[in-house]
Amino acid sequence: MNRRKYHLHLGGQAVGPLREEQVLKMLKAGSVTAETPIWAEGEDDWIPIKDRDEFDRTEIVRAGLPELTDDEPELDDME
Description:
The protein has helices at 20-29, 57-62, and strands at 6-10, 13-18, 37-40, 47-48. Strands 2-1-3-4 form a 4-stranded antiparallel sheet. By secondary structure, it is an alpha+beta fold. The protein contains 2 helices and 4 strands; from the N terminus they run ββαββα.
């Protein structure tokens, strides 16, 4: 885990600072989603949690994003 501090945008307010493991715990509990805006100290913009490299994709999937199934088209099939 890194030592970076994060803030989440919840209910119109910034919540934080939070450690990475706290954000992961909130994802697992369902109190935030992969779409919840997050900001890391030293950065300019808020982005969805799912767009942060340090949050393991499997943790986000477990927190509520659907996994791809065999029925869904691959990106190559969409051209």
